[in-house]
Amino acid sequence: MRRAAGDSRFWRSVERLLSKPGSRMAEVNVGKIARLTRQGDRVVVPGKVLGKGEINHRVTVAALFFSSAALDKLRSAGCTVMRLDEFVRVEQKGSGVKLIV
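Structure (tokenized):
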């Protein structure tokens, strides 16, 4: 992650989570994202989004990886999906962004 864009406390905490070993990487299902968000929320998953569950509202989700099932479900619900590095450029401060692990 680029230090210039990630100088906020939010991005430092995401960076700390990403520095853990790969075997401890967060894996979050679409259903969990649906339960913890509302229409229009912006979400960061410092790991992989998996396809279990359903979502029926639009959110923006940024993660390191997405399973193909998760991508299909999120896109069919009208969600915006982004790679984490793309999202850092858009949300430099991270204010109002939900962190889901």
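The longest strand covers residues 42-50. The two ends are 18 Å apart (CA to CA).
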